[in-house]
């Protein structure tokens, strides 16, 4: 069963390694975030203790997509557009609003997230293991991240799903 640690009481050790889930980056850097849930403190402490923070291509993709989808929701609400008629790909992606938020999200990855993290490549073995153990979690990306964890790498996520993972992963959150 997952080993849950609360960042309010957890002490980061010098040089620890973590995969940092999308939701943490969203809380920290999304233009739509209204609360960092304390993760700014985690980020600062991790930097001070020379911790390694990892992301992967899935986390980058999720981050950009969440920002663009949130912008779409806001745009549709602001202009009172019916989303049955005003589709994300067909219509919203053609707007300057989409271009603005897509660029903003990509720049945020380059200038903020990658400034604080490194890419941890997804290996074939991670994918195979995730597909074989699909029943362990209902979110494939989250399951994939757990397969990338080792005894030295923990996951930092605000996602409660990790608490139900059947293996002894270490899940840290506020």
TrEMBL record:
Domain of life of the organism encoding this protein: Bacteria
Record's protein name: PIN domain-containing protein
Organism: Streptococcus anginosus
């Amino acid at each position: 069963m997952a080993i849950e640690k609360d960042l309010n009481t957890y002490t980061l050790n010098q040089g620890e390694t973590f995969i940092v889930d999308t939701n943490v980056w969203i809380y920290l850097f999304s233009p739509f975030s209204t609360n960092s849930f304390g993760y700014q403190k985690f980020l600062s402490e991790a930097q001070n203790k020379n911790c390694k923070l990892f992301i992967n291509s899935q986390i980058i993709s999720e981050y950009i997509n969440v920002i663009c989808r949130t912008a779409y929701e806001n745009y549709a609400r602001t202009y009172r557009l019916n989303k049955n008629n005003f589709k994300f790909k067909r219509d919203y992606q053609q707007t300057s609003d989409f271009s603005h938020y897509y660029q903003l999200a990509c720049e945020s990855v380059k200038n903020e997230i990658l400034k604080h993290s490194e890419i941890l490549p997804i290996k074939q073995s991670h994918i195979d293991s995730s597909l074989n153990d699909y029943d362990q979690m209902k979110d494939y990306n989250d399951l994939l991240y757990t397969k990338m964890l080792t005894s030295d790498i923990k996951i930092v996520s605000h996602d409660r799903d990790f608490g139900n993972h059947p293996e002894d992963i270490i899940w840290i959150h506020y």
